[in-house]
Design a protein that fits this description.
Blueprint: H1 2-26, E1 41-44, E2 47-50, E3 72-75, H2 87-104, E4 111-112, E5 121-126, E6 134-136, E7 143-147, E8 153-154, E9 164-165, H3 166-178, E10 193-195, H4 205-216
Parallel strand pairs: 3-4, 3-5, 5-7, 8-9
Antiparallel strand pairs: 1-2, 2-10, 6-7
Helix pairs in contact: 2-3
Signal peptide: 1-31
Protein name: Peptidase metallopeptidase domain-containing protein
Pfam families: Peptidase_M10 (PF00413)
């Protein structure tokens, strides 16, 4: 019996060592994509996670900053627009998203220009993989990409449960293009998850404190 038990223990130990090696190799590893690209948004069970892994959040406060103002933004001249959305209303929503951040840091003095490829922050609706709705690049890159094929954007007062609120999503990605990374604060715009149908259209006090710290603490 003792010999059998010993064999069982040895077998269990060998299996543990094999599995342990596998688990170490396969666990999520935090990484930064090239060109300062922030992790894209992963959709899972009705939730959008701004990262490759739902539990991975970059704890750094900042990813860069702008030094010359005013900042310009605009749509790339090649960018299509999501079908079913009124163009003027869509532009108004994007303008509003930038104004929310400007209210916290008036020095941004955002100006929308056309064509947007000459802007500091260039907006492009484009085809992303089916688990991404968008991402923003940190300064001084400034690209902001939003999915046009797999994401149902809403510019209405109340998005449905299968839609993403464009104002909420745009505010989050603009935060990245201004230099902010993620936060654990669920009330913050820069929290990495956004449920379908969720509205998050106002900066939290933490969002305001972080963006002001980034742009004012050096002065």
């Amino acid at each position: 019996m003792a010999i059998k038990f010993c064999h069982q223990m040895n077998g269990a130990l060998i299996m543990f060592l094999v599995l342990q090696s596998f688990l170490v190799e396969c666990r999520p590893v935090k990484s930064e994509p090239p060109h300062n690209q922030d992790q894209g948004q992963r959709k899972s069970n009705g939730t959008t996670v701004d990262g490759l892994y739902s539990l991975e959040i970059n704890h750094n406060l900042y990813g860069g900053k702008w030094y010359n103002f005013p900042l310009t933004y605009g749509f790339d001249s090649t960018s299509p627009m999501p079908s079913g959305l009124n163009y003027e209303n869509l532009i108004s929503v994007i303008d509003e998203a930038f104004q929310k951040w400007q209210a916290a840091v008036p020095e941004f003095a955002f100006q929308r220009i056309y064509p947007g490829e000459y802007a500091d922050i260039t907006i492009l609706f484009t085809t992303l993989s089916n688990d991404l709705y968008g991402y923003g690049y940190y300064p001084p890159d400034g690209r902001l990409h939003l999915d046009i094929d797999h994401t149902y954007w809403s510019i209405e007062s109340y998005p449905t449960q299968n839609q993403h609120d464009l104002l909420s999503g745009a505010m989050h990605e603009i935060g990245h293009t201004l230099g902010l990374m993620h936060t654990w604060n669920r009330d913050a715009v820069m929290y990495p998850t956004l449920d379908y149908g969720m509205i998050k259209r106002e900066l939290s006090q933490e969002d305001i404190d972080r963006i002001q710290s980034l742009y004012y603490d050096d002065y």
